[in-house]
Structure formats: C-alpha cells, structure tokens
Fold this protein.
Amino acid sequence: MEKVDALLECAVEMGNVAGVVAMVTATGCEPYAGAYGDSSPGEAATMSTDTIFQVSSMVRPILTVAALTLVESGRLGLDDPLGAVLPGCKRPRGGSGSRRTSGSCPRPFGGSSRCGHC
C-alpha cells in the first residue's frame, strides 16, 4: 500500500485535491486506511481517516460498483462496447475513451510527475 500512500500524497502536493481519505479492504487482506491534506481548504485542519466531510458526487463510484457487479456475475464484459449494453448510446466525442489528456493528473506508480512521490 506504499504506492497508494505515495499517489494520495502526490495528489495533495500537486494541488489536485485539498485533502483525501482512502480505505480499501478485501477478503483475507489487511484493511488499508490513509489520509492526506487539509479537511478544510485554507485552514490548518489536517485530514484524518475519521474526518467528516460532505461528499459532492457519488455518481461515478455507484456506477462503478454496479458495473463491476455485472462483470462479476458474467452479465457484462469489461471490453463490451457501450452500444451493446446501452443501444441508445453512441461513442463519446473525442475518441474511444474518456481519459483526460490535460496532463494535470499524476501518473501513478511510475512515470513523470512534479512532486517526486509518484
């Protein structure tokens, strides 16, 4: 989990987020919890794993859990085209994926970055 710690710390240092809390658990594995940055932008309130904060948008995490549940049950494939799952949907503008190309995202677990942690 050292790589997760480095990625979270890097995101805070690069200014992508003011603060971040991440928790991961899996059967048979030691749970992970990490917190970096400030809980309130502009204040010296350090983020901790029990910090209470407002969640702005849960759409992507909820859709991700739903999609991965369908993958796990065999009803959806990771490489299935969107049109096969949702016939009314077309390919998104700008290419085949939705990856950001602005260069503002840190490159996790290697590659170049400005903060030296990644």
Observations:
- The longest strand covers residues 19-24.
- The longest helix spans residues 59-72.
